[in-house]
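Notes to self, Regulator of G-protein signaling 8:
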Amino acid sequence: LTPLLPHIDHRNRGMRTRLGCLSHKSDSYSDFTAILPDKPNRALKRLSTEEATRWADSFDVLLSHKYGLAAFRAFLKTEFSEENLEFWLACEDFKKTRSAAKLASKAQRIFEEFIDVQAPREVNIDFQTRELTRRNMQEPSLSCFDQAQGKVHSLMEKDSYPRFLRSKIYTDLLSQTQRRLS
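result:
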């Protein structure tokens, strides 16, 4: 069978390799430090236990902190759901658009990447929200993604955020900041 269909064997081997990489995803502190915005050691020296502890106060506190956002992104990658955060961030950036000329093209790019059915990084929103957003695209405004962004924010806050607070990434990070104090 292999000599007759060598291309299939090659594809299967490639698929096994990719699946093997996926199964090695880990939920660890070192994964978080790899994606920090600046040099990991310097960044973590500046992060206090108090700051990291405040991330548990509210989801918005976490999202507003540079290292909190990086830690949450690392966690979402372990769950293969970072598209939710990327969409939320894209919407935040979109709301800062001042050029009417750029508004429509940015809106289209966000819609095609995250909202459209079969989008490469499709977010999990209900049909009504998807359709409302599609209608909003006819005349894009700074608020055209508000409902979809709100749904994704709520989903992350109720679902991913509590798991993040229990994750090895977060607990290891807290331990690391506390260890520096002793």
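- The chain has one domain: 49-180.
- Residues 146-166 form the longest helix (21 residues).
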